[in-house]
Design brief:
single chain; five-stranded mixed barrel; 12 strands; mainly beta
Length: 137
Amino acid sequence: MVNYTQARDGKMNGSETVAGPGYILKVGAGTNDLSVGTAGAVALGISAGESERAAGGALDTSAASVSFLPVGNVLMVQATASQTWAVGAQVYAGASGLATTSNASSAKKLGLYVGPGESVPAAGGMIPVNTMGAEQA
């Protein structure tokens, strides 16, 4: 039986890359492509790691493969800098594939913060988000 909570494989749109785990991903512009999430876009999943690397070691910028976890579980997501999180806080999909507390720019709801309460001092700090309530459209 297929386990739909495991990481899925996809490919990035054009020259887009993902620098590590926890980035919000959305449907890309091409057929079956993924893109880094933007404010106002519906989140499809969260990157499980960095996108594919080229032979020289740099991130591949030619439709690189990437593994991602579909929304619907508790997932670790990278957050924007200078955010303070409290249990049950609304989490939104923001710019550059990072989670934010702000619903500005018609940001879509990603879920609820389920951690112990913390402050994320620098962009890229990981926070636990229950994505069961992620906005789907």
